[in-house]
Amino acid sequence: MTKTLVVGLDGASWELLDPWIEAGELPNLAALRDSGTWAGTRSCLPPVTFPNWKCYSSGKDPGGFGVFWFENVDLAAGEINVMNGGDYDTAELWDYLNDDGQSAGVVNMPTMYPPRDIDNLVVAGGPDAVEGEYRSISSGYTSPPELAEELESRFDYSVHPDPLLSSNDERGAEVDAILDLLEKRFEVATTLMDERDLDFVHVTLFYLNVLHHFFWDDEPSLRAWQLVDEWVGRLDDREDLNLVLMSDHGCDATQTEFYINEWLAENGYQVRDTSVDALLTRVGLDRENLLAVAKRAGLVDTLARVVPESIQQLVPQRDGVKRDRKLEAIDLERTKVVASGQGPVYINPRFDVDSVRESLMADLREVEDEHGPLFTDVYRGEDVYNGPYVDAGPEVVVDQRPGVHVNDGIGGGTVQSGPDRWAAENTPHGIFAAKGPDFEPQGELDRISILDIAPTLLAAHGCAVPTDMRGEVLPVFAEDHAVGERDPLSIADALGSDDGDAVEDRLKQLGYME
């Protein structure tokens, strides 16, 4: 059977790549499109890393696995919790490959920290493991655990670049560190695929989208894509390989920064409480200013080691408090609505949810800037999600217009502004391209769903498609791939034990159970 390598290109969009392809800057990507099959993709809402990498690998939207953004908002309990890989209740395409007796490796996959066992290897990565931003890495990032030592000794591998990019002005060592990381991702994925004779490997280039956010189509992003293009050329030359390129979402130049919780407060949906963060923000003490000072003094690593993370999190970001600290800044008893960034909006069940939702959706549809409405649509959550977790999701979901960044910061004081730190914002429009012995060149297809990719990859490997995957097998094969359907695996099945007590212990260890 032919091997498959999936290269996950975080935030990739044809809107960014087409001008470079037409200018001859990315000849191997151009050749791959000319000789293979390609399409634009549509992500699940919201179009962000958490949850769309799992939408890809599970073939489900967030209603199918219970994670709707980087955070879980439960206003009835008065809680906002930061999510990690243990919070996703779903098996993934590599679990089905394993169940069929095929080997798989996953390298630098966002949404997979802490790592869990598959046959053969997992290397966790992505923003859920960023020290000081979402949560520190408190355990190993590989499965099996001893793989980390091999990666570090053989490849000088690391989960995150050093120094970390934090400003549009940092175009030297910070960008070089990201390019070095991207190179190592390719080296690790291709080397281990060959040495371990793996049937399937997925590798994600997460920090590619960090460059998009800070630089959009400027030179640092082009340098990264030229590195990707070189590797595409090398991989395209292999006759034993199905090569698939895909992204979790797309990106486009930022036009407007919309601070949705500030808008909610201004329009009577949210009531604020005095917090330490608000006082610090008023005197100009924020995380971005402190990081800039620490970088100039060469004290970033020292402060990270000496200052407990709980203390670091007390310093607000420039655009206000986020994540689990948002509830400290509002009076929940009198607040009707709280929003996450880039889409999900939650209504406090202490109020009449239906009437609040009706007025809120009408008001959000009226929000504009000089380019027009900020949202291409405003949905009820049950109209965009499917599965057992719909009731735990947001009551309202906004589909932000390309170029709009919906920022969830509380306390910054601004409702709308021009671009802040991000030169580009996520969009639902990503990329897909495929070429290899099992694929019939089809040229450009109509836009596909990100949910179609997992069923198509399973079909390429002769595996039946589980009935809870919502995507379709794409018409991209040289021969008939009518693989049929199968019953889904549970997460306990995916962990692979017949001993109920052992399964429960492992689930607790990995964070799937309390």
From TrEMBL:
GO molecular function, one term: hydrolase activity
A Pfam family: Phosphodiest
InterPro entries the record matches: Alkaline_phosphatase_core_sf (IPR017850), Phosphodiest/P_Trfase (IPR002591)
Name used for this protein in its record: Nucleotide pyrophosphatase
Organism: Haloarcula rubripromontorii
